[in-house]
Write a structure and sequence with these properties.
By secondary structure, the chain is an alpha/beta fold. The protein is about 30% helix and about 20% strand. The strands form three sheets. The protein has a seven-stranded mixed sheet with strand order 8-7-6-13-14-16-15. Strands 3-2-1-4-5 form a five-stranded parallel sheet. The protein is globular, with a radius of gyration of 21 Å.
Amino acid sequence: MCEKDLVKDSILEEIYLELRESEYPIYIWGAGSMSVEVENRLKEQQIEVKGFFVNEDKKKSHIIQKEDRIYALDKLEDEQSKINVVIGHGHFEKRNILERYSFINKIYIIPNPYIQYCSKGIGKYVESHKPDIENIMVHLADKQSCDALQAYCKVNETDDIRYLMNKEFCIDGMFGFEGLKLTHSERYLDVGAWEGDTIELFLEKVSEQYRHIAAVEPDPNSFFVLKQKMKGKGDIEFYPYGVGKKEGILYLDRESTQSAYFSEEKDEHGEKIEVKVKTLDSLFVNEMFSLIKISIPFLFLDVLQGCEECIKKNKPRLVVNVAADDGVRVFDTINWIFGLKLDYKIALRFDFPMPTRLYLYAY
């Protein structure tokens, strides 16, 4: 590790202490929703942030902060003799670029700045569920899956991102797991399609050859972008619904565009969006899918439970983000899939060294 590496032997509290005591001004890399969350976490620790910066001309970036606080990296180098840099979650490729700049004193990474995904109770959970977790470990598909689950627990206990720096269980993209064995005749269901990013990853993996795609996305703004982005693509259907284990109404909290999540509580200020919720079994009564991807914070197990009949009929391969929650639903999800008794193999992989990017593969 180089001298400017971010995660020493400390946890977040020590990082915050260093930042508070440092003589150098603090700037956050990035100009999107992640950087907003990073600033919020620093403010909570009484740490002043001077501004934000991007590696290129700021006009080319997706800016959501005030324009006068965002700098291009080269301009910042001209104006400052020394600065500290904070990066959200783990853009390690950015860190490698930034290390070349001598005016950057030190680089820090906040492993998971999204407060709704706090999982500080995972240590106690693991301790009190040892027999069950040991049983899960025995039945996972391979050693990399066991290592990934152990690393997931450790990084959530300690905030030490180094636990995820294992190339054996980090893959190149969510569809990079070799056990999926994707073909050119997939019938793909994307649940939590957002603005089409995961559909694009799928299309790239299958060289845009497939039989059918169904995209489910409840956020009206994201749904609009999704449809625009997929114009010209053949045989894609779009569904503007929330999904869960039963039908009803939920409220979409959009406090951050990249971490929107559902809750049962209506917002008295009217900032939450009311969403009609269906089950996947009711939406797709006669559909047969070969691959289902689910990326729904907190509700991924609910979505699976509302898709039980479809899964039992077709035994599609499953790709599920099982880490965007309070930290412990991954265990319940694994047990639920095993409980179907469909002889699924279950593997776990990170598609990025970040606590919330653990994916379950049932195949």
